[in-house]
From TrEMBL, chain A:
Domain of life: Bacteria
Family: Belongs to the thioredoxin family. DsbA subfamily.
Record protein name field: Protein-disulfide isomerase
Organism of origin: Frankia canadensis
Transmembrane segments: 94-114
GO molecular function: isomerase activity; oxidoreductase activity
Annotated Basic and acidic residues bias: 62-75
InterPro entries documented for this protein: Thioredoxin-like_fold, Thioredoxin-like_sf
PANTHER family for this protein: DISULFIDE BOND FORMATION PROTEIN D, GLUTATHIONE S-TRANSFERASE KAPPA
Domain Thioredoxin-like fold span(s) in chain numbering: 134-299
UniProtKB/TrEMBL annotation, chain B:
Coiled coil stretches, renumbered: none
GO biological process terms held by the UniProt record: methylamine metabolic process
This protein's UniProt keywords: Membrane, Transmembrane, Transmembrane helix
Protein name: Putative membrane protein
Main location: membrane
Amino acid sequence: MTSKTRSGGRNGGPTRGSAGQARAGADQPDTDGSDVLRKPDASGSGGGSGSKGGSGSGGGRPVDKRRSSADERRAKAAAARAAEAARERRRRNWIVAGVVVLALLVAGGIGFAVQNSREESKPVVLPAGSTGTDHGIVVGKASAPVTVDMYEDFQCPACEALEKQTGSTFRGLLDEGKIKIDYHMMSFLGPESKRAANASAAAANEGKFRQLHDVLYANQPKEHTGGFTNATLIELGAKAGLTSQAYKDAVNNGTYDGYVAKVDSDAGKAGVTGTPTVLINGRQLTGDQLTPDGFRAAVSAAS
Amino acid sequence: MNTLAYRLSAPTQPASRAVSTALRLVLGAVWLAAGLLKINDPEGMVRSIRAFRILPEALVQPVAYGVPFLEIALGVLLVAGLAVRVTALVSTLMFALYIAAIASAAARGLRIDCGCFSSGGDLSAGASTHYTSELIRDSLLLAVAAVLAWRPVGYLAVDRLLDRPVDDRFGSDDDDLED
């Protein structure tokens, strides 16, 4: 019964069914019935012949044999068609799989191209005073014996805490000529950080990095609240003595955006894994060494 | 006939399909969210990947730029239901890689944010890591992807449209790549 339904379903199906039929016919010329009978047992469509034989056991043997051999042929043709269909399906599935994997790779590639072109749009303009390692902004007397590398982000609360705790010590040692500080202003906390870092580069260009740096930390907005807009930075710049049109233009135009991005990525490449990171002679200071006393001790040990 | 019997016993019951559909849509939504949240912050992604300190510098940028797009593509394919088994397998592989990366960061004592759904990177001194919850979340997603790879057949999938013309009525809605 099942084989009948199936072949009925197939005959109504697309052209592939008839192709399968033709192939089955070629494999199995219908001259020798007994051969047809034996083969399917091995090929796996024996289930059909078994059930057919059971249902037709009441009839005469030769008639039954002939009928079942016709059934067998049909079953065999159906099996061949099924196998063909399965092959076809498998082939198509592999094609789909290949296309999809390729599409995923292409998506990644397009993403790389898109983001890459987005990145390269900003030219790197070096501000005056960016003479430190990786173009950090150097503050302090040139004769100072100890160079401190300072990695900060204007929006980072831990940096603000450090400035509050040890800032006056930094300023004292800078003024005494004991240290110079190579500032790497990172900007990974969002657009506010980038704007502030851009403003600080503009300040450096006018020799007022230190002043703006200290004013910005004294007026640090809460992280990610949209503080440090260009207007705010121009206002705070005025407090640091930056009233020139050049400063305002640099802030508004993002003149140093390319530089800011470069400093940030160079810091990352240098292995700086967070802010604040403070190095003396390339060695990172521990939390204890960032207290006023600890820092003084670290400086005198290095000098 | 064996093929017919096999197909009828194949996991195409409504319950299996409903679960598969739900898992597929959830996973697709997760990928879309993860990719879209990262796509506008390529530098953040670079920092985040660099922070893991696994990939060589030359590969950091390509991977950081490409992965969000890959995630979105996976999300679109899963929601559409196109080549579900393949996308589920790729998802499984990616979650396995993420889990390995986070676990290795935790083992090496790095203090970073995984950047799974945003720009991650190094945490500032005070912030705490969430390795355990990140690992649990990614493991759950891995399990979802694995189940979906095992039972990719569901409703509302492009796969079902594609599957129809080639086969007969009985086998038509079977899964893809059944062998």
